[in-house]
Amino acid sequence: MLSLVSRRPFKVLAITLAAVIAVTSIVVAVVIYTTDSSEQATIAGAFLALLGVLITQGVNTMIAWTTARDNQERSLALEEQRFQADTFKQYFEYVSRLIADDLLDSGRLMADELTTPERQRDPTDSTPPSFQLSPNQFPLLIVLRARTLAVLPGQNPQRKANVLEFLYETGLIYKLDGAPALSLASADLSGVDLSGSVWENLDLSWTDLHGATFTETVLHGADLSGADLSGADLTNADLTGAIGITNETLEQEVASLAGATMPNGQKYEEWLKTKAARGESLNDDQKRLLQEYEDQL
């Protein structure tokens, strides 16, 4: 809306300048036609000089307005970036206090794992701890969910990934037995970049993941029920054990499945071979991908 409004003075000036040039040209023509030939050159020169001044001033004004508009748009963009950065920082400060002061003390099932030798976790185990919540903690999770959904829109892909990683490592969005402590349903994770990361039983159900990047991402056991994966890149991703989504849905929605491992543990190219063997048609890209895969065998 702002850019449309800022262009209106520019358009008005351009129209006004064009009208002035047209009227001036008509006046010059009339005056020259109705005066003696001895005065025509003088009159024409004067009007042309005036026209030149008007054009110069109009052009300078348009340049000034254009510069001011560009500076305003850059200023607004920087202000938006600062706002998003401040919002992001405030979110992490708030959530850190919430988890440390209200959830961690009584909610974590294995809070003493790192201090009790006999219960220390395997350092190679990337599975996050899980939460067992008491009834008085549910209002806190409602607030945390609201804050999370509010901070994500407008953030860049890396910051969205940071939010996911933080919530995952605290065990809030880890899904093993039953629902996770915190639901991300309706969360704006569009464009998030999780390339090369490893996640176990991550709950992404009903999230907006369109345009996300999962190149070489491990998503073992992820819940993708109702997730919007349109345009997502799952090149070489590992979806073994993922639930809530079928191979057919993945094929229809995502931008790339080249080299990906499907929820049933089957390579995407092997699944294409199975489809072809059943007599189902493949498009040109699928045929090319399957041919490249077979050439490498």
Structure description:
The protein has two domains: 2-79; 108-266, 3 Solenoid (Pectate Lyase C-like), CATH 2.160.20. Helix 1 (2-34) runs antiparallel to helix 2, helix 2 (37-107) runs antiparallel to helix 3 (138-151) and helix 6 (268-277) packs across helix 7. It is 54% helix and 2% strand. The longest helix has 71 residues, at 37-107. 23% of the residues are buried. The chain contains seven helices and two strands, in the order H-H-H-H-E-E-H-H-H. With 297 residues, the protein is an all-alpha fold. The chain is elongated and about 100 Å long. It has helices at 2-34, 37-107, 138-151, 157-169, 247-253, 268-277, 284-296; strands spanning 198-200, 218-220. A two-stranded parallel ribbon has the order 1-2.
As residue ranges, the low-confidence spans are 1-6, 106-121
Class by SSE composition: mainly alpha
What would the average pLDDT be, to the nearest integer? 79
- Overall 3D geometry? elongated
For the secondary structure, the number of strands is: 2
Cross-sheet strand order for the largest sheet: 1-2
CATH topology of the largest domain: Pectate Lyase C-like
Could you name the CATH class of the largest domain?
A: Mainly Beta
* Terminal CA distance: 55 Å
Beta-strand portion reads: under 5%
The appropriate CATH architecture of the largest domain is 3 Solenoid
Number of domains: 2
- The radius of gyration over CA amounts to 32 Å
Query: Given the structure, what is the number of helices?
Result: 7
Major beta-sheet overview:
2 strands, parallel
Helix content: 40-55%
SSE string: HHHHEEHHH
